[in-house]
Amino acid sequence: MKQTTTEYNCPAWINFLNEVTNGNDEAVKQLQEFAGSCLAPQSCWGKALVLSGKGWGKTVFVKILREMVGTEKTSYVANSGFKNEFLRAELKDKWLNTSTLGSPDELDDAYFKCIVTGEFVTASVMHGDSFHFSPTCKLVLETSTLSVENRRCLTIDFGYRPASPARDLFHELLKEIDAIRDWAYEGLKRLIDQDCFSQGNKAD
């Protein structure tokens, strides 16, 4: 069922999601569930979120996620950096990691799988001892040119290209951030009840 502006107290946000997904109801539900998962770092559902397509809105969505989660709980390590033990250390205790996808091959990396599924990894800090930790961050990747088909990814196509994008949209959406957080918690509840994302199977 399509989400409406009267269902949640964040009408600008709901309108934005319906526009950037070209009215794809399942995509909006998956975005809601993934946003909710970022607020439950103790749990893993084995999926990264890939925002793809040449359309508009990917960066706005990511910026709102960062605001919702909090900058102190957000990291910015590229997938290619997961092989670096010092960069992996930046993921510890984070709830969200955002970056740009450089190549589909990055999704086949063993560390990518470990981070998505919350398996223990080893990391190091400069002039300190190495340590083990279970990643709690959810991965969000942006790409405009790559086609992504990977069982550990929720790939959402952002195909909407407005004639004149709203320049102040991010700041307008910020006014609804508390309601957007409530919207995300509703997605988390559904995710917990289903134990998988809508129209998807739980990863091994």
Automatic annotation (TrEMBL):
<keyword id="KW-0378">Hydrolase</keyword>
<protein>
    <submittedName>
        <fullName>Putative DNA primase/helicase</fullName>
    </submittedName>
</protein>
<keyword id="KW-0547">Nucleotide-binding</keyword>
<dbReference type="Pfam" id="PF19263">
    <property type="entry name" value="DUF5906"/>
</dbReference>
<dbReference type="InterPro" id="IPR045455">
    <property type="entry name" value="NrS-1_pol-like_helicase"/>
</dbReference>
<keyword id="KW-0067">ATP-binding</keyword>
<feature type="domain" description="NrS-1 polymerase-like helicase">
    <location>
        <begin position="53"/>
        <end position="143"/>
    </location>
</feature>
<dbReference type="GO" id="GO:0004386">
    <property type="term" value="F:helicase activity"/>
</dbReference>
<dbReference type="InterPro" id="IPR027417">
    <property type="entry name" value="P-loop_NTPase"/>
</dbReference>
<keyword id="KW-0347">Helicase</keyword>
